[in-house]
Amino acid sequence: MPPDDVFDAALRRFMEQRRVDMRSLAAELGIGRATLYRRTGSRDQLLGHVLWYLTERNLQRAVRQAEGLRGADRIVAVIGNFLAGVNDQPSLRHFLATEPEAALRILTSKRGIVQPGVVAHLEGLLAEEIAAGAFAPRLDARTLAFVLVRIGESFLYADAIADGEPDVDQALQVIGRLLEG
């Protein structure tokens, strides 16, 4: 995790839909670029932390919104709430539109922190529903979590991946069918 001052400045820039540029960020913080890189790692790593922070908040909100549901209904509701929240985030849409390659690399790489974090969170949700006897998947929880995340990414980032339009409803239809008993 980058130092608080660096993280806060990068988050502010991201939320203001300004490019998180390491040169101007270092100047704003009154440090040299080399110092900034030593403290944060690469630009992708810094943006990964910013995006994971926003993603984690969105995941927590999505789980709260699905309270009272169980089994596949809860899983689909959490995923739907999450995807809708991500899709409705102007700063993320701006990042995907202006820097699609960087955005996809940071958001969907297994070597980053965002996708593995979302997969782990979803795997935990699946495990809760399995342990409660409310859901009996045909795949192991880890594999199913990964597949569900990839389906969500495919529809959510369709504009950056394949010149399509993001389609949360279509993603939920596919996910719902996959989770049917």
Automatic annotation (TrEMBL):
Keywords on record: DNA-binding, Transcription, Transcription regulation
InterPro entries in the record: Homeodomain-like_sf (IPR009057), HTH-type_TetR-like_transc_reg (IPR050109), TetR_C_36 (IPR041485)
Gene3D superfamilies noted in UniProt: Homeodomain-like (1.10.10.60), Tetracycline Repressor, domain 2 (1.10.357.10)
SUPFAM superfamilies for this protein: Homeodomain-like
Domain QsdR TetR regulatory C-terminal per the UniProt entry, residue ranges: 70-179
One Pfam family from the record: TetR_C_36
Keyword Cell division part of the UniProt annotation: no
Full protein name: QsdR family transcriptional regulator
Species in which this protein is naturally found: Dactylosporangium fulvum
